[in-house]
Amino acid sequence: MARAMFEYTKVVLQKVSFNKDLFKKELEKAINRLLPYELKELYLWLKEFTSNKPNLQACLAIVKN
């Protein structure tokens, strides 16, 4: 089930990426739900996903901490 939560998190983040505040809120929820190794995967995915979205790149710091 943990893997399903990780995949669900990615889908949600993609859907709310139009709004930085929503994106940040969903990212904070994900940090509380995901396992430590999934957070590392999420960080790598976020680096790729936000590479062409400069307004969302600041959110990387949330996961890094």
Characterization of the model:
It is built from four helices and no strands. The protein has 65 residues and is an all-alpha fold. The longest helix has 14 residues, at 2-15. The model has no long low-confidence stretch (mean pLDDT 92).
Break the fold down into its secondary structure elements and pairings:
Layout: H1 2-15, H2 20-33, H3 36-49, H4 60-64
Helix pairs in contact: 1-2, 1-3
Give me a quick take on this structure:
The chain has 65 residues and is mainly α. It is built from four helices and no strands.
Mean pLDDT: 92
Number of strands: 0
Span between N and C termini? 25 Å
**Hey, roughly how much beta strand do the residues contain?**
under 5%
User: What is the C-alpha radius of gyration, as a whole number of Å?
Assistant: 11 Å
Fraction of helical residues: over 70%
Task: Quickly count the helices.
Answer: 4
Q: What can be said about the biggest beta sheet?
A: none
N-to-C series of helices and strands: HHHH
What global shape is seen? globular
> Could you say which structural class the secondary elements and strand pairing correspond to?
mainly alpha
Query: Regions with pLDDT < 50 over 5+ consecutive residues?
Result: none
